[in-house]
Amino acid sequence: MNKQEALVIGASSDIGQSVASALKETEEFDNIHLVSRKPITNTSLLNSSIFRTYICDNKEVSIRRVLQEIYIAGSAPCSIVICNGILHSNKISPERRLEQISASSLEKIFRINAIIPILWLSELINHLSGTSPSVVAVLSARVGSITDNKLGGWYSYRASKSALNMLLKTAAIEYSRRNRMVKLLSLHPGTVDTKLSKPFQRSIPKEQIFTPDYAASRLLKIMKSISHDGELDYLDWEGKEIPW
Ligand SMILES: NC(=O)c1ccc[n+]([C@@H]2O[C@H](COP(=O)([O-])OP(=O)(O)OC[C@H]3O[C@@H](n4cnc5c(N)ncnc54)[C@H](OP(=O)(O)O)[C@@H]3O)[C@@H](O)[C@H]2O)c1
Description:
By secondary structure, the chain is α/β, with parallel strands linked by helices. Helix content is 36%, strand content 18%. A 7-stranded parallel β-sheet has the order 3-2-1-4-5-6-9. Strands 7-8 form a two-stranded parallel sheet. The longest helix is centred in the last third of the chain and has 24 residues, at 155-178. The site of NADP nicotinamide-adenine-dinucleotide phosphate has 27 residues, from α1, α4 and β7.
């Protein structure tokens, strides 16, 4: 079997690093390209020559440069995972009340969670193969579901993931016209024990919190089994559909 290439964007993510390791474990890939804003420090990734790392600030010109570098070197990734997403930072906490909404937090979270993934997809349209199948999986979240929003709160995170889903749905329609070999996925990895969920794990039973390795294995299973039907699927870690 011809070996393939994979690309993990936002690769410093705890889930992204497990995705990178899980991709390597499959032994299906010659190269796994890892893109992050900062150098990857995970030694188990750095010690393997299968991984190629790129620093990128996710501006349009930088995204273009990274993809050109990858493709000029003769690589053509067909399994792509976009991990970028934040819920909180030193300065941002998820809003519980309307009075906690700030324009600057909303703008920052929308940029990272919704705008950056669509910038990558807008550049990838001119790079992905039109003759062999590719899958682009973007890490979304169940809280981006408008139907599922029973609890309220987390305005910026919820809305940014809903916006991400709409951007992906619109991109899937265009991809299906321009390149039907590409399948787009919006995936909810479950609650995963990472930097992102750490401050919010107290109310969740331990058995419902996944390790990043488990979440990564579920996501790769879905990516491998999905059919190329020109649709965007919004799925959880079990492969079950999430209502929009
Ligand atoms: N953990 C969970 O329970 C959970 C649940 C549902 C959905 N998710 C989603 O899963 C994805 C990965 O999350 P994680 O749990 O692995 O969190 P994490 O370890 O905190 O990863 C954060 C991710 O966001 C990116 N990022 C952070 N600040 C950024 C900035 N200023 N500009 C651009 N990118 C930035 C990082 O990319 P760099 O490599 O470039 O730093 C990295 O990909 C997110 O999209 C998250 O919403 C997680």
